[in-house]
Amino acid sequence: MTTMPCYQLISLAALLLLAKNGVQAQETACYDNLDTVFQELGAEDVDLEADKLFVLCPNTVFDIGVLEIGVGIVDGQAFIAPRSNTTFSCGEDGSSTNSCILRGGDYGVVAFGGLFFDDEEATNVVIRGLTFEGQAQSMAAIQQAGDFHFEDCIFQNSNSFAPVIVNYDPVADDANASSTYFSECVFQNNTQRARELGVEFGVMTIVGAGNEVELDDCIFRDNKYADFTIAPVGYAVSVGANNAFVMKNSCILGNDFLGAGPVVLNPDTSFVMIGNNIMAEASLLLCEFAARFPTEEDVANLAPQCVDSQVDVCRASIYEG
Fold it and tell me: Considering the entire predicted model, what is its pTM?
């Protein structure tokens, strides 16, 4: 599968222009403009060892801009670009019910070492209670070593190649790993976009190598990825070779997928699945839940080993029936 790395889409020079644009310091108890967050994290004297909390104002829509090469982000605010020891919270309690919506633009969150000169990794990053809506490239793009925790977040209404993509690929064997955790998150109402450059993505795609991704208490619902005119496959999660994937107490509900299965496990993938449930139309799928391809020959022959769902009801704590 051909991938589209973030560094092909993001201009470092363009992004640094944003950090120098003279946004006034935030005076309120919460942030109602993400340009200010970007500026503070991009400051030369920022302490990467200290804990940094950014509380976003509840009941606020943050209209995200688009990247214009050589200019910066235009027609909107900056996306979230995390650095080590940062927490982004919707309101003081970090609940998605507080309604902090990052709407539109190219990206919602980008973790990419090239954004800041001295960041080989970003550790202890927490994103809590945010709603990402309708980004054109990715709602969340992780292409950096470190650990990233999405808690009670909503990813919705996207029509893109990769609504959520984890695409870290270490350049050295001794490089640090990238770990991404999704807890009590909802992925809903996303639709497949016509492919370009041979790229075929689903709701969540894990590529590169050395990535560890865990879904716990999450729900995929009402996503539409079964249009033969766009691509021959569509799925909830695809895990590329040399990555690790854990899925626990999560549910796939009322989606429309196409191909091997809602979850695709490519060769040389380690995986653990516990307490998951599926309630979805499976007539266009070879496997009702997960499709595991032990070898490249199995991929070529479209001959997966099917992994059944583990329970008959949705165990996700956020499921309301």
Answer: 0.89
